[in-house]
Amino acid sequence: MKHISIIPLYDATMSSIDSCRQLFSRVNDFMKYQHKPPFYDVEIVGLAKNTMLSNGLYTINVDKTIEQVKKTDIVVLPLLCGDFKKAIHENKAYNNWITGQHRNNAEIVCLCVGSFYLASTGLLDNKKCAVHWAAKNEFKEMFPGIKIIDDTIITDENGIYTCGGGFSYLNLLLYVIEKHLGRDISILASKMFEIDIERKSQNPFMIFIGQKKHGDEIVLQAQEYIENNPTETFTVDAVCDKFSVGRRTFERRFKKCTDNSILEYIQRVKVEYAKKHLEAGKKTINEIIYEAGYNDIDAFRKTFRKITDLSPLEYRKKYMLQ
């Protein structure tokens, strides 16, 4: 039996704590139906017997305090909501216990932006981390040495798991259950809780937000120029000429500051423009593509799918306003 310690971090969401407790506990019911012993011993483990969440809106009566749990197998860090720097400070009292449990071979399951706290402990140093697309720039600013992954929703770094995207933590829990008990139990859990087990990416949900906290004024001006003119037909040379900079040097500067090449940035801005018009549903897809500055419809469709994992038609069907 694996002991799970769900940690009610300061600024954690009640829903993520309770979802973990319910999902892992329900797995024990599945095992019982198959005439097998329970697999998880699920407890909420905090600093004190009574822990407040959401500025006192909720109070959790924990099962045990960290002093009472000398050894655990899995530490679950819930989703955070609010000021990440403040949350890191308020949760420092957990640091030694969590890092000590990891040294003692405990797995760490970190839900969405709980990764801000996890990164502060040093356990993500030299590791990959999945981060919610809306928090990516802030995370990079606070933890520049950690490699952010945004093309998948789950990372698995030798027993440290992270996920990107709000309720994608449910997919992470299914992933962990599959590692422990196999695909059949994970699928059963996905059916019982109606979780889309095949969700692998944040891309269909992502809204492009350019990284602008870098201090390079010319790069910032170029970003704003591209963003303010989404229907223009840009070339990389034209952007460089506008700001009187050499292409080779400026491309390096731009990539370093924004994590995108100039061409990628142009493409992302145009895809974001197209997404908004696809959602509105007032124009044909081809009209939107031409307005975005593309004459080659197939080329735009390929770019759109690369960025969103969906075709323009699939995107419209999924998100068009009624």
Automatic annotation (TrEMBL):
Give UniProt keywords alphabetically.
DNA-binding, Transcription, Transcription regulation
Q: Does the keyword Transcription apply?
A: yes
Identify the SMART domains for this entry.
Answer: HTH_ARAC
The segment(s) forming the HTH araC/xylS-type domain are 220-318
Instruction: Tell me one Pfam family matched here.
Output: HTH_18
Q: Which GO terms describe its molecular function?
A: DNA-binding transcription factor activity; sequence-specific DNA binding
Q: InterPro entries per the record?
A: Class_I_gatase-like (IPR029062), DJ-1/PfpI (IPR002818), Homeodomain-like_sf (IPR009057), HTH_AraC (IPR018060), HTH_AraC-typ_CS (IPR018062)
Q: Does the keyword Cell inner membrane apply?
A: no
This protein's name = Helix-turn-helix domain-containing protein
Q: Identify the species of origin.
A: Chitinophaga agrisoli
